[in-house]
Structure formats: structure tokens, C-alpha cells
Amino acid sequence: MQDSPMQRMWDSAHLSGGNAAYVEELFELYLHDPNAVPEEWRSYFQKLPANGTPASDVSHSSIREHFILLAKNQRRAQPVSAGSVSTEHEKKQVEVLRLIQAYRLRGHQAAQLDPLGLQQRSVPADLSLNHYGLTDGDLDTVFRTGDLAIGTDEATLREIVDSLKATYCRSIGAEFSHIVDSEQRTWFQQRFESVRGQPDFSPEVKAHLLERLTAAEGLEKYLGTKYPGTKRFGLEGGESLIPLLDEIIQRTGSYGVKEIVLGMAHRGRLNVLVNTLGKNPRDLFDEFEGKKVEGLSSGDVKYHQGFSSNVMTPGGEVHLAMAFNPSHLEIVSPVVEGSVRARQDRRQDEVGDKVLPITIHGDAAVAGQGVVMETFQMSQTRAYKTGGTIRVVVNNQVGFTTNKQEDSRSTEYATDVAKMIQAPIFHVNADDPEAVLFVSQLAVDYRMQFKRDIVLDLICYRRRGHNEADEPSGTQPLMYQKIAKQRTTRELYSDSLIQSKVLTSEDVQARIDEYRDALDNGLHVVKSLVKEPNPELFVDWRPYLGHAWTARHDTRFDLKTLQDLSTKLLHVPEGFVVQRQVNKILEDRSKMGAGAMPINWGYAETMAYATLLFEGHPVRITGQDVGRGTFSHRHAALHNQKDGSTYLPLQHLYEGQPSFALYDSFLSEEAVLAFEYGYATTTPNALVIWEAQFGDFANGAQVVIDQFITSGEHKWGRLCGLTMLLPHGYEGQGPEHSSARLERYLQLCAEHNIQVCVPTTPAQIYHLLRRQVIRPLRKPLVVLTPKSLLRHKLAISTIEDLTQSCFQTAIGEIDQIDPAKVERLVLCSGKVYYDLLEKRRAEGREDIAIVRIEQLYPFPEDDLAEILAPYQNLKHIVWCQEEPMNQGAWYCSQHHMRRVAIAHNKELVLQYAGRDASASPAAGYASVHAEQQEKLLQDAFTV
């Protein structure tokens, strides 16, 4: 709005005198007919707070007071019960009101949504006059319009029906009647009905629309000519996506949004990167020609790449970020949400005014992928809400080769899943660019006012096959016969502009030539691109770049300060009644802090968080039951036994401390872990933790682990310091509550991509968590945390262990055993260590030493060699694990251990002690578990 006539009026006159009267008149005119005011004013008025009433039924007390809308005392048609109706006309009046509601509810089923005209749907019976006892003879009869927002209290039935058809049965199919909140429904009715679903746009807007369509089509044609047959997953048939995104970005910028994060799969991605985010076409051409990106060991295909840039909008500079995305459909959506939430937290944007998520979906994927439901479900929860997401479905009506509705889904629309959270849905014919523009504006205004998700279903087609090397007519002959004859969206729209004399054919051709010349010259094609972006709009990752792997880092902490923090964590507000068992935990922690009692896991973990907060690092922990901890060890959230209120001591350490966010998540693994990955990749200075209820349950999020966490750095150069806490240990709890599938993580380890650690003492988890943040290296951390060790009598540490030590990648023998007497060395990791220790002590064996490997990757060969050095009389070296032979660390780590053993003594042969190979992670019978456990311990001492 900068330098516009409207802005100058505001600035020069402060709405005084004649200007105020003029604006008053404009607003009154807008209330009667939005199309009757200039577009710039209409756009401004549309953004004014609705206050729960339709604009046509409200007035402004004063434009000078920012158009605070108040209810008019205007007479409204009241619902009439059939029993009270006395005349035939009044009976028909009731039926007319029912007809109006039917169009709002079912009009989308009669809308002209398919550009190809292949979707031939019968008009619902309840949209016909005779369904309500009305006839053509009633068409010229005047009826009250009720709350139909067409600017008049009364109209003929013909005018009412024509208005309803124009509003609900043209190029837009509106679904908002399922929304429970009447304020939102009324808002949509007024916005949609007042312009008959088709606002008038200025010649300048129409010309810009054509320019965006020309860019979208121009890039695809250029790539098709220059790189024929090369996969690009083009946007042909769905070119309206580009003006849609352009309008969303510009309009949200006018609201003061500072950052927008986009997530999308491969269809149209290259077009969005070049024509929306401003990626230099020359860089894209380099990728087509296979040029390697320096610094990436593997890289990724061009249609998975992310990008960021800054563009100028009427409200100022906006930072755009396109999330990197693998081929796994829909998984990027929760990653985007996590990145957005992190940016909002950084800006202290609690309601979502400054950062906006946009996710772009395919129709088959949005209907078929379960993570879509999970992401919708998280949209209004405390831990994961982002103030609403604009979700765009590029609906090309075919999923790879599946286009029959009965095969692709069980719902009428691909978008029906969104109704679970009462999201409004607008289906729009992509060959009507002005309808696309209108719903884009509607989506932005709704999201900014109501802070909820909205879905735009862009119904288009796929001009080529699934990719450019695919021949689609073999599986969709009728569809592609139609597509072969279909003129492009740009051609259809340019013809309409020429016919209406908005542009000439020469103007149209000039735009085509201008765009192609820009591509030939490798120029940026986004005119709003900011060449020197404001660095304050995005996170600076430079302090975390270029660091080599280091195992150790100084994580010591001052004893007196630690004890002061420990004392503060014991404080609860006056009148806050803590549950009896929890109070005992707090009493024990008081003794631990004073050094009068050995510290346990819960205390050490809590102090890790407290010390990091003290040093200026935010902490975020989510997962199922994380407040208490699945095994009741954490109790970071206290619950008042009187009124159920909650108190988090870690949020009250000192004034102005960094954020401590702790949320029990909803029952999801895939979406939640993806969210936390997105959060961690956007917040490098924070400790971000996701804890699985049981480590086994992480397999429900395996795609996140495979496609993002373990490979993101080497595919995309994307650093991430996410920490995963996965409870693991064989306590006879059966196949689904024993193993966190350690072997899967180790199999994914290479090039120092992640860390896999199995700490066995409270001090170890304390230093491990602190190392993860204090060390500038940013690598995902997978921690196999214990269950029974949380309270094991031997799994203890001292307060001095927290203040004076550091994380040890391997721990040698702790008993006073003469190294010269040791002939057998048992290597192990995790809980089994304590079983081995108790067995050795019970048998009084002094010829056996036990060594713990606390970090399985990167494997600490040098540290292990140093531990082995004193044992010069070794005859046996054994790896002992609880997991079956084909699981656990044996297969993935034995070569490391063998290399160290041979270097120590080339005669040593590494042997295995553990369960036999098994298809199941653990035995389900307690007796079988005990028998197996006893045997593996015995084997460790005898094989």
C-alpha cells in the first residue's frame, strides 16, 4: 500500500475533514456492494476485524477509530417454524430460506470445477425448486433474503436463485457449512455471497495474473525444449499455482508477516523455486546438467532441493524458505510446521502473526498418507500449533496411474480429511485464474483473522505423465485424449483479456518474449526479489558450520551454582499440593543436591536442563508422557492435587531465562518427530528433544529417521541437533516393549552423520545432554535410555560427577581388579552391564574385566584401545548383548571392536555372547526371557 493514493490520504489528512467523509462513503458502499469500490480499498476493508457479524449487517462508529464494527439495529429475517405459518406465501418463504441453506451446503456439488469436463456430476435434488414445493411460477415473486448477503433484504426468487448459482455453482466449490463456529460460517457467507463468488479485478491485477501464468508456462516450455525427456515433474496443467502463491505471499506481507515457510512434494517444485522464490534459472540449468554442489557428499535430485530468499511486499520485506523434501509424500508437512513454530518462538509470535506456513499437496497423497491426518490433528494443540496453515492441493485428478475415485479414496473429495478439524475447503477450477486469485485472498484473510487451517483444492490436470519420460495414455486413454486438445490456462486467459480489451495480442506476446529472454540470459525472474536481504529475518548458522567431530567437550559446571539451581527446582508455589509419591521424589532430590544421597537418573537429567537454561540455551521436550516420564522418573511438570493446575519448576529459575517448553504430545510418532526435526533445524542454540514412550515406538516414524535425521546433512547440507530419547532394555516385557531397534540406527551410521549413545549412569546422561548443546557441532543424537536403571541401586552418581567430569565414550573396569590377573575382557553396552557386574561380584571372579561402550557411533576406537592397554594377559575378548544376534550392536560394531582387539593382541578373537538370531526382538514369555538372560550371562564368562 506504500505510496498509493489511499496511503497518501491516510498520511496527509489523518482522515479528517472531507477525506473522512469520502472514506465513510466508500465503506458504506463497500458494505452494500464490495465490487463497487476500488480494489485497493476493497482489499483494505476485507482485512478489518469481523467481530463475528457479517459486514453487510454492521456499521462503523468511526473510520477514524479503525473501523470498529458494531452490530446494526437492522431488521433481520427470523427463522420461522412451519407450524406458525398461516399463509401460502409465508410457507413458501420458509422453503426459500431452506433453499438458500441448501446451496451453501451442497452448491459445490453442482459447481464447474473440472477444467477437462470429465467430472460429470448430477445436480443434487435439494438444489431444485420442486424439492421445496416451488415452481417456475414463483420466480418473479418477491421473498425476504434472510441472511443472504446480496445487499438487499428482499428479492425475487429468480434473483435469489441466480445469485446462489453465481456464488456457489461456478468455478468455486465452497465447503464451510461443516464448521461449528457460527462466526466463521457467517464470515464466509458474507465474503462469498457479497461478490457472488467472483469479485471484479482491475486491469492491472488481471495483467499481473497473466504475467504470472506466462512465467509458469514459460519455464516448463523452456525446460521441455532444452532438456527433453528429463524428469522435472512439471506444473503443466496446474500453472495457476504460481499466481496463487504470489497472491498469498503479497497479501500476507501486507498483514505484517515477516517469514513464510513452504513445503511441497516434487510436482511443480522447480517452477515454484524459480518463479516464486527467485532461484536463479542458471543455477537450475546447472543442476539439469549434473553439476555437483560443493560440500555435499551425496547431494539430491533437483526437485527435492530447498531454497530461501527475501521478497518485497506491500507490508515490507518477507523471508521465504522452501523446505528440503524427499520423495516420501506428505512427510514434509509436519517438518514445515516445526520450522514455523521455531521461528514463531524466536520472534515471541504466540498467535502466528509474523510467520506463516504454506503446505502444497498432491490429491492422491493428501487422501492416502496417514501423516496428513496427524498433521491436521496437531494444528490446534499447545505443543504444535502455528496459527493456521494455508494448505494447497494441486489436484491433477490422477495419482501416478490411479485416477478412478473408487481406487484412490473412499471419500467424495481428496480433501475430506480436512473436515476432521473443521477446516474450510475451497475447490477451484484452475483454468479460472480470477477464481483462483479470489480464493487465495479469502484464504489469507481467514487465516490471519481466525488463526486456523484452510484448504484450497486447485483442481487442474497433468498435461504429461507422472514424469516427462512417462507415457500416460497407456493407462489413462480418455483423459489424455481430452488433455491433448485442451488449451493451456495461459492461452485461455490471454484470449479473455484480449476479447475484453484489457490487453492486446502484442502485449501478450511481449510478456512471453520478455520471460524467455530472461531465461536465456540466466536472469532472476521474480521482480519482487530483494537482492540484499535483511539478515535479521532468518537464523544465522555460521557459528555451527565447519566443525570437525570431537568426542569430548568441557561440560563441567560450578558446584555452588548447580546446588543453587537444584534448590530453586524444589520450590513450589504457596498452596500448591504435590502428590505424596512425587513429594518423596522432591525430598530425595533435596538430599541429592546437598550431597547427602547418591544422585539418580531423574535428578541428573533435570539438572542438565537447569544448567543449560542457566547458560542461555532454550530447551524443548515433547513426546508421550514426557512431563512425568513413562517410567515416572522425570516429574518436570508438577500437578496440584487440589485443582489440577500445573507448575514447571524449570520455567522459574530466574527472571528472563530462556524458554523451557515441555509438552505431552498427542499419540503420534511420525508427525511429531518430523515436527521436532523441523524445529531443531531452525533453532541451533536450543536443546530439542523428542522422547518415545518406548523406544520400539520410534519405528512408526522411521521415514523421518531415514529421510531427514540421518541423511539430511549429506543430501542438503542441513544441520540438525535433534535429540531422540528411546527407552531400551530387556526386562521381560515382550517384543514391543524391549528393543528400540538399535541396529537400525547403527546401520544408518556413516560419515559422522549421527551419534548413537547408550549411557549407563546419571552423570553420563547429564554430560551427554550438555555436550549436545555446548559443543558447536550440530549432529542428531540418538540416546538409548534405560527403564530399570532409572532406579537401579548400582546406577548412581555423585554430585561431584556432575561438576567435575565429562561424557565418557567408553568406561573401563570400576572394581579394584589387578589388570595382570585379567584373562577375559567382556565388552558390553547398556543395562546388561549391571547384570554382568552383579554376576561377577557374586562369583568372586578376578580374572574378568568388564568394559562399557557408551557411544556406539562414532565408535570410540582410540578410547577403547586406551582402556585395553593395561590388560597384557588377555586370552579372551567377548562382546555381550541382550538383543538377538541379528539385532543390537553386534553386526554393525564388531569390526570396530575387532580392529582394537587385534591391535592390542593379534591372537585375540572377538567372540559373541547373547541371544540367538531371532525374527522377534524379544521373548513374550517371562520364563523364556529369564532363561535366555541367564544363558547369555553365562556365555559371556565361558565362551
Automatic annotation (TrEMBL):
Alphabetic keyword roster: Oxidoreductase, Thiamine pyrophosphate
Enzyme class: oxidoreductase
InterPro entries tied to this protein: 2-oxogl_dehyd_N, 2oxoglutarate_DH_E1, DH_E1, KGD_C_sf, ODO-1/KGD_C, THDP-binding, Transketolase-like_Pyr-bd
One of the record's GO molecular function terms: oxoglutarate dehydrogenase (succinyl-transferring) activity
Enzyme nomenclature, EC number: 1.2.4.2
SUPFAM superfamilies linked to this entry: Thiamin diphosphate-binding fold (THDP-binding)
Keyword set includes Oxidoreductase: yes
Cofactor(s) the record lists: thiamine diphosphate
SMART domains for this protein: Transket_pyr
Domain of life: Bacteria
Segments forming domain Transketolase-like pyrimidine-binding: 599-792
Biological function: E1 component of the 2-oxoglutarate dehydrogenase (OGDH) complex which catalyzes the decarboxylation of 2-oxoglutarate, the first step in the conversion of 2-oxoglutarate to succinyl-CoA and CO(2).
Similarity-based family: Belongs to the alpha-ketoglutarate dehydrogenase family.
PANTHER family registered for this protein in UniProt: 2-OXOADIPATE DEHYDROGENASE COMPLEX COMPONENT E1, 2-OXOGLUTARATE DEHYDROGENASE
Protein name per UniProt: oxoglutarate dehydrogenase (succinyl-transferring)
